[in-house]
Amino acid sequence: MRSGSWLMTMAFLTTLLSVPALADGILVPSHVRPAPDATPPAHFSIRYHRVHLEITGQVLNCSVDQVFHNETRAELEGIYLFPAPPGATITKFSMDVDGKPTEGRLLSRDEARSIYEGIVRKRKDPALLEYVDRTTFRARVFPIPPSGDKRIQISYTQLLTVDNGLCEVVYPLDTERFSSKPIDEVTVVADIRPGAPLATVYSPSHELSIDKKADDHFVASFEQTRVVPDTDFRLFYTLADQEFGLKVLTHRPRAGEDGYFLLMASPRRSAEVEERTPKDVVFVLDTSGSMKTDGKIDQAKGALKFCLESLRAGDRFGIVAFSTAVNAFGGSLSSVEEARSEGLTFVDGLAARGGTNLGQALEAALSAFDDPGRPQFVVLLSDGMPTVGLTHTDEILRLASEKRKQRTRLFAFGVGHDVDVPFLDKLTEQNGGTSDYVRPREDIEVKVSAFFGKLSNPVLTDLSLDFGRVTAHDYYPQVFPDLFQGGELLVLGRYRGSGDVNLKLRGQYGGATREFGYSVSFPEQTDAAEFVPRLWAARKIGFLLDEIRLNQPGRQELVDEVVQLSREFGIMTEYTSFLVEEPAGGSAPVPGMAAAYGVPGGMGGPAATAEAASRLDRAMRARMGGYAISQRQNALNLRGQAQAPRNEWIDAEGQVQPIGGVRYVAGRAFYNRNGVWVDARYRPEQRVMNVQALSEAQFQLGRAMPALNQYFSIGEHVLVEVNGQAVMLGPEGRAELTEADLADLMRG
Predict the structure, then answer these.
(1) Using one digit for the tens of pLDDT, what is the confidence trace for 475-516?
(2) How confident is the model at residue 338 (pLDDT cuts 50, 70, 90)?
(3) 450 and 331 together in one domain
(4) Paired strand residues for 727
(5) Domain of 419?
(6) Are residues 499 and 586 in the same domain?
(7) Which of 80, 427, 524, 550 is such that its CA lies 20 to 30 A from the CA of 580?
(8) How many domains would you assign to the chain?
(9) Is the pLDDT of residue 390 over 80?
(10) Is 479 found in the same domain as 405?
(11) Any bridge partners for residue 310, and if so which?
């Protein structure tokens, strides 16, 4: 919201399309009684915003609780507008005015449209163009005393639609363009009781805390403080009709082009834990002298003891402690029922001294497994480089590859900044596992314990997918991880072909190979699930960064692909962010604009691209220290991206750094170039139509092509690609369009 506007509104409005959706309310000032010393501008903020979604069967009961705060020294009068979803019934509206409840009324679609457009025209506030074209609840809010609060509560019911076992709920929470300051508290709680077992509960927009009460009862929630939400809340849940639930979401805006898909799979019943295959685990603990510092050895021993306590009946374990030499517990794998107590005593007696003989330790651990029918895990904790025995990392990688059995998974925790990050990453990646890093001052016990708690209950291993006559390609992860109890498999990729297919999921389950079949549709064209392409792009960028870092530090074509995907989907890394932030060089000005600005196709020019490659190459070559760990964490975050990517990056000190200058709206990336929001799809050779902001021409375009309202709402200066042409919204341009103008734009 711009500081020059006297109206600063706090709004929760979104264009609600074909999916079942919810909507929050907007409060706008309609009258101001100035205090003697009052100074403009007048505006509201929000104390808190709480939403409770109760889903019983297919009926949604939504309760919204908001407290608006008058930031001024003037008494304000406001109008509260609440866009009601199709088929929704308002059941409660509560607001005290002088101790009495106020009245509100439902407006028709035409009345609602008129009110929204009137607010936009009068207040010069293009953000409000993202209005809801449907019935609207309206109520007068008066008075709001100087520096005072007004609490508003509204509830409604709505019948949800379940499509082939899949239900989506959308709650507009994107307030970035309407907020003058962060909201103190934002909370959304979804209590889901569909009356049938649930397979998955998933949000592509927010990281949820999920509490599984029963097979048919989940509670999903998130809470943020001091935040300006910039992403609508979206929730999917799927009903389970098999032991392993699986659903696929697709997006394919243009027929003939490759589509995008998101596959979600998870075990249905908690009872499946009882059917799991007992596992073998060998713990490999670095007890070299460097582990004495900062209490690392004591933390590592505590983490290892937690893991031993977490083993279940039927499991077997081994312990390999190593420094200059190897000190193994027992001569072979031990039954947890018979040897857990002795194992705990062994761990208590370990002390840190000597060098780091990692190669011998791994050889001992990988040689311990004797039953190929059981899941096999190696868990390594180490804080440094190998200094004894095999010291060349290539030799250790080759040793691990030779000694590893087919079903063995190797996981590693690097402790501190002295570890060789690319080496550990490659070691685990080549051996079916993952690596993680514990920075100085982080708690080893907490990190390892959280990891092993998940690892304790494998329910499907050695996964594979058969897509039938549809060709799936460019999917991530490229090697599917094992599926653990309470976990979820998310696969993002592209597809060719179309139609209904019998998708098959195969894996090792309960000691045998199991196969599960699912009827899945891959349409020729669909505008649904528009968030999927960006999630796919985030994962691919993460994969490419790892490829550059681990394997191909000098591959320019990989760097170019990272930059291209970053631009197209608005996913910035610390290496591409300056391409957005720096002044453009060499870009031609758009007709009608006095100042030149850059466009995504030429952000920064060749010199900037070369500098990006240089920075990326230097960073990817880092092997040790905080910088190397951050590189790995950034890539891993993107590779495992499950929610809407946020433009932020972890620096060498482990601090999260936000990146500005880019927005992703309704499937398109926009870049702020010298005060103009430029559509990533725009190309300099395209013909540009200049349209005056907040003129009749702008509203004509919004009515003819409603999707444009979302793009125009970004700001007062927006350049949008339209069917191979472009519209420049700004202070200059046409005030009204002819039918021929509209037809030309819509035709392309």
Answers:
(1) 999 888 888 776 778 899 999 999 999 999 998 776 678 888
(2) very high
(3) yes
(4) 689, 720
(5) 277-456
(6) no
(7) 550
(8) 5
(9) yes
(10) no
(11) none
